[in-house]
Amino acid sequence: MDTLAIKRSLEGSGLRCTPQRFAVMAALMEHTEHPTAVEIFEAVNRRDPHSSRATIYNNPRHLVEAGSVRGAALEDRSARFDANVIRHHHFICDRCGNVEDME
Questions:
Q1: Domain locations in the chain as residue ranges
Q2: In the beta sheet, which residues pair with residue 84?
Q3: What is the pLDDT along the chain (103 residues), one digit of tens a residue?
Q4: Contact indicator for 88, 80 with CB cutoff of 8 Å
Q5: Contact of 80 with 36, CB cutoff 8 Å
Q6: Measured between alpha carbons, how far is 60 from 80 in angstroms, rounded to an integer?
Q7: What CATH code would you report for 3-102?
Q8: pTM of the model
Q9: CA 43/CA 27 separation, integer angstroms
């Protein structure tokens, strides 16, 4: 995890680098399988069990609005989040729901 890259990404998007926002970005950068808000919360909670569920659930939306993260709304599935903001497509497995980037 590149701490400086996370801080630059947040500040470049006009967002303050709060501990919770940093933790959400770190979780997104570590998990390239496009996690849901629940999965992000679980990853952050493993590191910092004091993080509020509402704060962690709201941060991905704020990150999407600021352009630091892409949101992927998948048919009949929970929204997923992607730290790769370069325009690309996604391959979604019908069996397991796994999401992969397609260049």
A1: 3-102
A2: none
A3: 688 989 988 998 899 999 999 999 999 988 878 899 999 999 999 988 888 999 998 999 999 999 989 887 666 677 889 888 888 887 888 788 778 888 7
A4: no
A5: yes
A6: 9
A7: 1.10.10.10
A8: 0.82
A9: 6
